[in-house]
Amino acid sequence: MRVWAAHALFATILVGSLAARERAAMTPIPSDAFESAVLRVATSEGLEFRKYGAKTTGTKLRTLVLDAVGCSQPVFVLFRLATFEDEATIKSTPEHSYLSQYIYIDRKFDKPSLRPVLIQRIKYGLLSMFGSTDYAPYSNIPFVLQVETPVNCRVAEKINWSPAWSRSFIVSQ
Amino acid sequence: LRDPIDAGLEAPIAALWPFLSGEQLSVLATRASTNAGEARHGLDLPRRDVLLWVCAIIFLNQVFAAVNEASWASPELVLSDIAAVGVFQLMAWYAVFRLLAYSDRAPVAQPWDVLIALTLCLLLLLPTDRPIWVVATVAAVVAWICGGGDPRLRAAGTVLAAISAQKFWGHILFGLFALPLLRAETAVVGTILQVARTGTVWKDNVITLPNGHGIVVYSGCSSFHNLSMALLCWVTVIAVRNQNWQTRDLKIGYAVGLTMVFCNVARLCLMAWNADLYHYWHDGAGAQIFAIGASVSVLVISLYGSSLTTRST
Question: What per-residue string of b and e applies to A69-89 under the rule 16 or more CB within 10 Å gives b?
Answer without folding.
Answer: eebebbbbbbbbbbbbbbbbe
